[in-house]
Amino acid sequence: MIVTKQKDFEFIKTELSDSNGVFIVGCGDCATLAQTGGEKEVLEMKAKLLQENIPVTGDAVLNVPCDIRVVRRDFKINKDEMDKTDTLLVM
């Protein structure tokens, strides 16, 4: 059994307050099923961060982020956005 839990938003906000650009990475597998980091939660987090004036450079929901081959492929697809990023928020 896999258990995921999203961190408290106040903690996330504090940790990202000095970021010049956040790229949000979600999971299309376990975190989607647990409703802690799938597409819906990534979009919600993006909206919350933007509301707090924390810049978001982009987002991606990887099908299987625990497979390095998938991560490499999807990060290459998002290279332009990732180049503007100094912080990754992995959900």
Structure in a nutshell:
It is built from five helices and three strands, in the order H-E-H-H-E-H-H-E. The chain has a three-stranded parallel beta sheet, sandwiched between helices.
Question: Helix content range of the residues, please?
Answer: 40-55%
Tell me the number of helical segments per DSSP (H or I, 4 or more residues long): 5
Rg measurement, Å: 13 Å
The helix-and-strand class reads alpha/beta
Q: Note poorly predicted spans.
A: none
Ends apart, CA distance between termini: 18 Å
Strand count, sense and closure of the main sheet? Answer: 3 strands, parallel
Order of neighbouring strands in the sheet with most strands: 2-1-3
Q: In sequence order, what are the helices and strands, one letter per element? A: HEHHEHHE
Report the principal-axis shape: globular
Per DSSP E runs of 2 or more residues, the count of β-strands stands at 3
Q: Kindly report the average pLDDT value.
A: 93
Strand fraction band? Answer: 15-25%
Topology, please?
Elements (H helix, E strand, L loop, with lengths): L8 H8 L5 E6 L2 H5 L4 H13 L4 E7 L5 H10 L1 H5 L3 E4 L1
Parallel strand pairs: 1-2, 1-3
